[in-house]
Amino acid sequence: MSDEVVSRDDYVGERAFLMTFIFTSCTDECGTLVNMCRLVQEDAAAEGYDDDIAFLLMTFDPETDDAGALREYGREHGADVEAENWRFLRPETQDEALDLVNETFGAPVDVQPPQEGDHYDDGNESADGNESADTNETNASSDENHDAEDHGDDSGHGDGHADEGTTHYYMIFLVNEDGIVERSYPRAHTEIPTDVIDDVQTVVENDA
User: Fold this and answer.
1) Which UniProt keywords apply (predicted)?
2) In terms of pLDDT, which residue wins out, 179 or 107?
3) For residue 190, what are the contacts with CB-CB under 8 A and spacing of at least 6?
4) In the beta sheet, which residues pair with residue 181?
5) Which stretches within the chain are classed as H helix?
């Protein structure tokens, strides 16, 4: 992870990517999303297409998830976080993160006001070593997603889970080299990994 702005232009015309949204304090299925990406990463390394796919995992809790926390979270789930194709994205503020997730990607997230007894660290602004997500550039958006194949039942966009006041929907997008969403997995935590791997391989082959 490095202190740089990541834009969609970094990948369009270069490689396909998997994009998902997590936060490290999640006690439910965020780890499953990381594991899914990790399994694809391992297959890509084994099958020799690791230069043709990237993994972008964006936190919508940047006040808590500094670079160190994100890196450790990835390692805990077996990901090669030092690999060139693996990036955690950390917008500067929570509002920017929520705008990017809700409006740009169409993945619903809702943060409720803290209740008495909730613990938030509001003093952790930007940490060295994070990768910033440019809300104007990084936009494999829902507008491009109208022809994408949805996997599973996307009623309500999957299963939401309230965790520390945050409602999160477990989604992964598979975006091709041209920046078009080829597949969306609105219930990604229920997907069979080999099915996702097959989809990724197909998109990479079509991009070649």
Assistant:
1) Copper, Disulfide bond, Metal-binding, Plasmid
2) 179
3) 152
4) 175
5) 30-47, 67-76, 94-99, 193-207
For the segment 65-76, the average pLDDT, to the nearest whole number, is 95
- Each as own residue / partner, the long-range contacts of residues 159-164 (CB below 8 Å, 24 or more positions apart, any chain) are 159/29, 159/187, 159/189, 160/108, 161/26, 161/28, 161/29, 162/112, 163/23, 163/25, 163/26, 163/27, 163/28, 164/25, 164/118, 164/119, 164/120
- Rounded distance between C-alpha atoms, residue 29 and residue 36, angstroms: 11
Chain position carrying tokens 């299925």: 29
* Binding-site residue positions: 26, 30
The domain at 5-207 falls in which architecture? 3-Layer(aba) Sandwich (3.40)
- Tell whether the model's pLDDT for residue 170 goes beyond 90: no
Are 142 and 105 in contact by the 8 Å Cβ rule? The answer is: yes
Question: Three-class SS of residue 197?
Answer: helix
What is the pTM for the complete model shown? 0.74
Question: Which residue, among 93, 113, 91, 96, has the nearest Cα to 162 in the 3D structure?
Answer: 113
**Pick the residue with more confidence: 122 or 80?**
80
Task: Give me the DSSP letters along 52-109.
Answer: SEEEEEEES-TTT--HHHHHHHHHHTT--TTSTTEEEE--SSHHHHHHIIIIIS---E
- How is the chain split into domains, by residue range? 5-207
pLDDT at 76 over 90: yes
